[in-house]
Amino acid sequence: MILKNRFWVENVITEIRKNFPADGLLPIYINPHTGASASYSTVTFGAMGDSFYEYLLKAWIQGNKTEAVKHYREMWETSMKGLKSLIRRTTPSSFTYICEKNGGSLNDKMDELACFAPGMLALGASGYGPGEREQFLSLAEELAWTCYNFYQSTPTKLAGENYFFHAGQDMNVGTSWNILRPETVESLFYLWRLTGNKTYQEWGWNIFQAFEKNSRVESGYVGLKDVNTGVKDNMMQSFFLAETLKYLYLLFSPSSVISFDEWVFNTEAHPLKIVTRHDEGESSGGLVAQLKSPFRYRSRKEGRTGNK
Fold first, then answer.
1. Where does the record place the region Disordered (predicted)?
2. What is the pLDDT of residues 194-233, one digit of tens each?
């Protein structure tokens, strides 16, 4: 059964590769009979689009970065070129964000769900040469700063579901509920683990304190109906325990706990063992060592301030 399922999954990827767009950006709807993209459909790194890009990278990592899984990395790198075409920066504070795309036009909107991207970029940076490696780490840092400010920009210090970026303004909450999502703390965990910069622990602690202040109830934690007013809903999503708190715990744990050299997390934060293979494409020295060596910590850019 496992081999049969693997065959079908690989067959899907084979078909997608046949019609893979030059910029690597797939709309969220694809024709199931032809594999062709629906031209009217949205391209997004947020809801319904995020996991595809994440799993291209992580299939390569779980396969031990060998020749057998090289095509996943190649597709991911193509998609990252497409992601860079969606990057914009705000005025006046130069917050970096990822646009959504509808046909030939861009929508200046970013979901909190897309805040997985800084962690993904940091994780994938090790597969590039030194120049591109630092470039992608820098982009990861900039996006993480934006995502952290999704939280810091509201009265409750908890992020809304999505944000809009209007001309001459930094960020405005769109859908204003918070359902305890994990994506921002997930990226903070990756960036702390891969760079050793304790700033990411500080940011994670601030977010945890905001959950404690606004979402803690006698029987657990609940979301907010509105991050501006702090009005609570009456539900704790399962991913708060499975992902949000897990990533917060790991953010303050030693790097040896679920080592990146042995494990890769799926999109639901479950650790999967990296397959032991020995062929060309296997890297040496460990992922964290590869990233930390050439990486220079960057200070926050002037004008980027969060509310405290």
1. 284-308
2. 999 999 999 999 999 999 999 999 999 999 999 999 999 9
Tokens of 16: 């997608």
DSSP conformation class of 61: H
Domains of the chain: 2-292 (1.50.10.10)
What token pair was written down for 279?
């062929």
As annotated, the binding site for Ca(2+) includes: 267
Look up residue 105 and give its DSSP letter.
E
Is the sign of the CA dihedral 56, 61, 64, 65 positive or negative? positive
| 0.85 exceeded by pTM | yes
Note whether 273 and 262 are within 8 A (CB): yes
Residue-wise pLDDT for 242-256, tens only, equals 999 999 999 999 999
Q: Which residues are catalytic?
A: 161
